[in-house]
Amino acid sequence: MTSAPHLFEQIINASGVAMAVRLPDLCPILTNQAFLDYYGYGKNEIGILPPEAVLPDTTLALYETDILPTLQSGKSWDGEFAIRTKLGEHLTVWGRFDPVFDGSGQLSHIVSVMHDAVNSEDLNACNASLKFISDATSDIFFRLRLPDGKFDYLSSSVERFFGYTLKEHKLEPLLFKRIVHPDWREYFDEMWEELNNGIIRPDYELQYVHKSGDVRWVNQRLVLHRDAMGTPVAVEGIATDITARKIAEQALRANEEKFRFLTENITDVIWTLDLDLNFTYTTPSVKEVWGYDSEEVTKIHLFDFIVPESIPIFEDAVKKRAQVESEGNFDFVNRMELEHFRGDGSRFWMETVVKRIFDRDGKPCGYQGLSRDITKSKQAQAELAKRETRYRTLFEDSPISLWEEDLSDLKQYFEELKAQGITDFREYFYNHPESLNTCASLIKVVDVNKATLDLLAARSKEQLFGNLDKILTESSMAAFTEEIIMLASGGYEYCGEITNRTLNGETIWVMVHFFVPDEYKKCLSRVIVSLLDVTPRKRAEQALMDSEERYRVLAENSQEGVAVTQHGLTKYINESMSSILGYTTDELKQIHPIELAHPEDKAMALGQMGTYVTGKRKDAFASFRVITKNKEIKWLTLNVKPISWGGKDAQIEILTDVTRHKKLEAELLAAHAQMEDRINKRTAELSKANAQLKAEADERSKAQERITSLTKQLILVQEDERQRISRDLHDNVAQDLSSIMLKMETLFDDVDNVDPRLEERGESMAQVLRKAIASVRDIAYGLRPPALDQLGLVKALDNLCQDSGSKYGFSVDFFSIGIETVTLDFDTEINIYRMVQEAVRNIGKHAEANKITVRLVKSHPDILIRIEDNGKGFIPKERMTEADAEKRMGMRSMEERARLIGGTMEIQSRIGTGTRILFKVPIENARRHD
């Protein structure tokens, strides 16, 4: 009761039996509605009235002379006594008083249960019910003689408990002593000796060995009985299997040890603050982080740790929390990054997570948080931002058109084609052009730079990305095909010259260089594509085709190396060729540029020129490094085209120095790789933090699941108890009253000349019995409506609505559709019935409505239950708060029942406009699964 007062209060309120928790002077401090109904007082009235106002003098005297001394001796008292109602009537009731002692052994509270006084027949019925309970419950009820250890009574549940039958226990006195766990036999012998000497403890906990060999924990509550001479002769008691609880306690202790180990060894700081932002607890790690020990920190205000520049961030977080909590959300978690002072005056950064904590009464009493040193992370972020800025500067301001593309989806498509057995991708793509369209759709352009927008006459990246199809030509599509074949076949680099169209419709020539960095060759998630505008050169080539003389002039003034060969002889070499390679023109007539290729690139260059050399193509293109005469390494591109020279076929070779572009590209890739490395490290840090947060969320989720399971079990127990009481009332009390009524009605059948006054009194008594029978049956039907089992949910709700309308004086419009096609399980049916019952009862008591509407509809995927009234309405948030404060469970009970069957409850109401309550229950949760 003291460890979970709110739960204890809910249990009392949910009980149909009149219960109260009293002080030793009989002043009630906690009551339920059934208790208040006996006296006729409200909850606020009963708590301030003196005992003599509600109890006659005879009862007060009985309490002083008999009841109180019995309770102070540690025993319970039960019997009949009188009470005084608010109207002054005296009622005789049966009551039971159980003592509750504080830690010092003083009587601190009394738990009382009360119901109407019963006659002998009712008492027999109660005894029968008690026997049924003792046989059906998992606990053991027993009476044991001292000192021989024989049972006067032992409930049949003992076999489920220990594995030994009733017969085995009766044949072997003190069998229970033999099966005590060896570790507890000394304790048992001490307990047994105390009982025989008249000494009894409040309860006993020890271990027994089940017949199967399993070890069970048992809790026993005993009452000692003495003979007239005061000699102990027997004990009565209840034994409860607490194995599950003990296992849970052991697990809890293990978890506490883990938590203690974690708090003592964690590098992060876990702390608590009071409402004035003074530290009340920190883990030992605070010494390593802040430079103060745990005791020193409690003497320093939080703001003394935070640098002035970060205090506004903290104050904004406080305002945000205040706003959220004003809306009723006290589970809000602040997350912030603040710069702090260490004990030596140095600064460092910490990431802090803060949540609200509450006292036992549910009132906010401070804050709890976790702080982690993120100084290195912040420095890494700054460095990453710096490198990213540098990378972006290089990328955006490069004079070459640069594209960053993601081909990871394309890589996956290639793997799917390979799994289908395709090996010759050139043949496949030429025979399946539709696959090329698929490849094009899988390419993601991540970014382009300013030079790209200028090259293609685009005003913005958005305009370019939305019109990529307009820049493609037949030449660029052919190059795209070669790129796809190259990638699918395992290649990672492609060079070529293609045409593109600008968004203004102008055709331009570009040299495309497609390159996959080493770190992305497995996934193709980053690919760099550069475009170099060679339109002026291509126009020069075209001019050469038209006029050799005009070309010669252009070639002499070109910055690119130009050579013309015919039938294996060099006919022309310009000065730029000599300048690029460092050899004289006469020397170059004897040397081909590919002969100067770097040893690592020569094979590649020859491969790129292979289709031209073999005559499969009339032109060729290659990109490679050369070693000049001055031993300088340069990146060049070699483009070979057929021309007419002197009226005969010849070839023109154009050599372009792209060393500067290659260096820029390499620097860009290095910067990109560094940025990716920083991103990966930061991602790893975030992943670790997310894993920790997920673990915390999982733990909270498991705790919530345990609470939900317990609540569901409590409600099931409540419904079972209601069913049992309803059956007892209907089958026993109502039947007995009916028998009495029949006897009253036939009392004077065989008597002549009956006094009319006697007949009138007999009829009056029969009328009272009829009302009593009707009341008992109404109570029984309310506890467990028979229509729910006999006629189903729809008919039971219809009966409930009509009966409530008659009782409270409002008209009810009930309608159901589609539910007949769904076979609901019992839990769903009883919970829906209780939700509607509570809603209709609340309307009758509080809404002042004259009309309500109840709808029960199957609307896939949910069952919808809507209850509306035209009453005075209310403000839902305020009403829920008042209900919590006044400890009224009506709306909370409806909401909890909806949640237990996987549904939701929504309340819509305003002052003067009535109220609408909508329940949604998923059909899949509600359906009976056989």
Question: Helix tally?
Answer: 35
Mean pLDDT, to the nearest integer, reads 81
Low-confidence stretches: 122-127
Instruction: State the separation between the terminal residues, measured CA to CA.
Output: 40 Å
- Percent of residues in helices comes to 40-55%
Cα radius of gyration in angstroms: 46 Å
Give the biggest sheet.
5 strands, antiparallel
- Described by the principal axes of the CA atoms, the overall outline is elongated
According to DSSP, the number of beta strands is 30
Structure characterization notes:
By secondary structure, this protein is α+β, with helices and mostly antiparallel strands. It is built from 35 helices and 30 strands. A five-stranded antiparallel β-sheet has the order 2-1-5-4-3. A five-stranded antiparallel β-sheet has the order 7-6-10-9-8. The protein has a five-stranded antiparallel β-sheet with strand order 12-11-15-14-13, with helices on both faces. Helix 28 runs antiparallel to helix 29 (756-783), helix 31 (793-808) runs parallel beside helix 32 (826-847) and helix 32 runs antiparallel to helix 34 (890-900). The protein starts with a helix and ends with a helix.
